[in-house]
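Box 3.1 A note on notation
Throughout this textbook, protein chains are presented in two layers. The first layer is the amino acid sequence; the second is a token string describing backbone geometry. Keep the layers aligned when reading.
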Amino acid sequence: MLALTLAMLLWGSSFIALKHVLGVWEFGQVLFMRMLVAGLCWLLLWRHLWRFSYQAGDWRWLALLGALEPCLYFLLEVNALRYTSAGQAGMVCALLPLLVAMVAYLLLGERISRRQLLGCMIAICGVVALGLGGEQAANAPNPLLGNALEMLAMLCAATYSVVLKKLSSRYGVLPLTALQAFVGILFFAPFAFSSPWPASWRPFDLAVILFLGACVTLGAYLLYNWAVTQVKVTMAAAYVNLLPVFTLIFAYLLLGERLTPLQGMACLTVLFGIAVGQMPLRRRKMVAEPVN
């Protein structure tokens, strides 16, 4: 519980940090430096990364894991933050528990109830309303597009969580988490060097990159991935409900972001859909009929 809560706190702060550095560097440069910092940190633990036994055919699942996160997920999330506010993006993340349940049903055959499907549909309607109710501003020029990209990023994250749970029984948390950083370095390098770099760099901006690479890409993912090996993946995903709370608080305190009244109602709709989807099913009591 502590590991999951701390991971959500770090991820909530990452939206604000990303929003800042995207005003300094191009998205490919930000992601490359973030993965490079995480990769350099992992090199300090290189002796612990080879303690696993590869099984034939697992390369497909490992390739899917790396493609989902960091490749597709970060491409979608960073571009989402170019069009929507950090607070709205964090709110969309609340969809993850329901999306994990749906992906677990498709890939692992885990049961999904009609109530979960209903809750997911309600929450998605809330996300759409959140984008439509947003006013165009310097930090959110196209909220509808940004929130749609963030929702696709959450779908990647949901699939990643299920694949990670499948692989965690055969591989340790350390090599699976380190795989993300090294795949990310290779994947984002072409994006990073496709445009000119800024002439001067401020120490504070570099400190934010170090925070994203060391504390979020390495720390938060390591905490979350370890927690997934200890509890059910749907239970771990439920802690993502804390993410929009932390993100909205950070966005209010550090960026001065505000929600319109319609967006406030949309946030309540999202939370209501999540509550409906995660509400425990009532067990029918068997009543014995009297014997004549």
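The chain has one domain: 1-45+58-195+202-278. Residues 1-45+58-195+202-278 form one domain.
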